[in-house]
Design a protein that fits this description.
globular, Cyclophilin, eight-stranded antiparallel β-sheet, alpha+beta, two-stranded antiparallel sheet, 22% strand
Length: 216
């Protein structure tokens, strides 16, 4: 990445581009911030929950904010219900920034294509201004509108420079200790054994993702 880019800009480009197999050297085009206020739309609840079981580490419980991103929540729930995420890994882990998963190529034995795949059905963007604070869950994309698919990320540390440029659709309500444990794994930062920032030699494998509907 060019040395002149600020750290937040570099990280944002890293998230948008590396996560979906695009050229790391190309800066991500800026996407206009949403005009609707997340604070005005958020309701107290209850909300459906997505429960991610990470092998050997525990559960991450995510409150799905359908009032902010109804199409994204519905698509995530559809994929989870079909078992799409079962057996995938958090293939990109940047401590102090995000953990990212949802690439189907992480099931195979070749790490070189990790992060380059999706479901094949993009989901329509629903950008909103929910602050990208620790525990927020959002869709990754290729750096331009209309390219989000199945890959998602969980913010590890507050990253407000991402605000409005990614579809935020949930927030962790339990299991941030599991997110922390994933960032504490040994990380192949420089990509000696596959893509950069991949947990290695142990991976962070998703055993299952299930949706728990809220009780009326």
């Amino acid at each position: 990445m060019p040395g002149a880019r600020s750290l937040p800009a570099a990280l944002a480009g890293f998230l948008a581009l590396a996560g979906l197999g695009c050229d790391l050297r190309a800066p991500a085009p800026r996407i206009p911030h949403a005009t609707r206020s997340a604070a005005a739309l958020l309701r107290e609840g209850p909300h459906d929950l997505a429960v991610i079981e990470v092998e050997g580490l525990g559960e991450i419980r995510i409150e799905l904010l359908s009032e902010l991103a109804p199409r994204t929540v519905a698509r995530f729930a559809e994929l989870a219900g079909a078992g799409f995420y079962d057996g995938l890994t958090f293939h990109r882990v940047v401590p102090g920034f995000v953990i990212q998963g949802g690439c189907p190529f992480t099931r195979n034995e070749d790490p070189r294509d990790d992060g380059k795949g999706g479901s094949g059905t993009p989901v329509q963007d629903e950008f909103n201004d929910l602050p990208q604070l620790r525990g927020v869950v959002a869709m990754a994309h290729k750096g331009s509108p209309g390219t989000a698919d199945s890959q998602f990320y969980i913010v590890h540390r507050d990253s407000r420079f991402l605000d409005g440029d990614y579809t935020a659709f949930g927030r962790v309500v339990a299991g941030l200790d599991v997110v922390d444990a994933i960032t504490a794994l040994e990380i192949d930062t420089w990509g000696r054994y596959g893509p950069e920032s991949r947990p290695y030699p142990r991976d962070a494998r998703i055993a299952s993702v299930r949706i728990e509907p809220h009780s009326p």
